Amino acid sequence: MIELQNVTLRYGEREILNEVSLVIEDNQIKAVLGPSGVGKSTILKLILGLIKPNSGRILIDGTDITTMKESQLYPIRRKMGIVFQGNALFDSMSISQNLGFFLRENLNIPEEEVERKVREQITFAGLEGYEDSLPENLSGGMKKRVAIGRALIFNPKMILFDEPTAGLDPVSSKKILNLIGALRKKNDLGAVLVTHIIDDVFMVADSVAVLYKGRIIFDDVTSKLHDANHPFIRSILSDKILEQ
Ligand SMILES: Nc1ncnc2c1ncn2[C@@H]1O[C@H](COP(=O)(O)OP(=O)(O)O)[C@@H](O)[C@H]1O
Ligand SMILES: [Mg+2]
């Protein structure tokens, strides 16, 4: 469904991505693993059409988005939910208002339908009793679950996670990863999981691409990562967490 073909991306003089090619199939969880600053969030921005590559193409369901105008991108973006690293919740809105916000803003659907969808996400994310709370009163793991619920509310086919476990304690991280795994089973959803934490990959990803110094140095099913010879991959397998 999502395909990057020979994508090169520079910020000014600095080359971040060098001829990166990636395929992300529907109903699969694909991890993109790499150290901080390597260009993982940049890949998500390219997939959403928020930035354009210097060369190469990005295809969503076979459609080239690299030449599209902003207005043409809206229906494409609606196929994908995104969970930002910092969650991007609205601080002054309750959890229910956060969940319903984009439905109310973007779609002309009856209020009862909005409320039904919000309740569905409250239940799925295990947030019963917190409907009227503000984000600041929730733990990091709960805020992440709200962000996931909000990303799911348009029924996307694919969900993009930017470092979903960064900053969470091990128990909360595990809950979030279980939720990501459950999404695929329950809703047949695909996911791109961008992370610098190798345990995330082993817990939920079907396949993994490793990004290092602007290039993909490994791209295969997760279980094969153990057999990779690249020194960088050997080092992350022994150290577990990638250094800055
Ligand atoms: N808008 C921008 N302008 C210039 N440099 C940027 C911009 N966004 C990100 N960068 C730089 O590009 C590199 C890759 O960024 P990013 O994709 O955020 O990395 P990651 O998500 O893997 O940590 C980093 O060195 C970052 O500082
Ligand atoms: Mg990032």
| β-sheet strand percentage | 25-35%
Order of strands side by side in the largest beta sheet?
A: 6-7-8-3-9-10
Order of helices and strands: EEEHEEHEHHHEHEHEEH
CATH C-level class of the largest domain is Alpha Beta
What structural class do you assign from the helix and strand content?
Answer: alpha/beta
Helix content: 25-40%
The largest β sheet comes out as: 6 strands, mixed
What small-molecule ligands were found?
adenosine-5'-diphosphate, magnesium ion
Specify the CATH homologous superfamily of the largest domain. Answer: P-loop containing nucleotide triphosphate hydrolases
What count of domains describes the coordinates?
2
Q: Residue-averaged pLDDT, rounded?
A: 93
Q: Give the CA-based shape.
A: globular
Q: Unreliable segments (pLDDT under 50, ≥5 consecutive)?
A: none
The DSSP helix count reads 8
Any idea of the CATH topology of the largest domain? Answer: Rossmann fold
Radius of gyration: 18 Å
**What is the annotated CATH architecture of the largest domain?**
3-Layer(aba) Sandwich
GO molecular function, one term: ATP hydrolysis activity
Domain ABC transporter: 2-238
Protein name: ATP-binding cassette domain-containing protein
Organism: Prosthecochloris vibrioformis (Chlorobium vibrioforme)
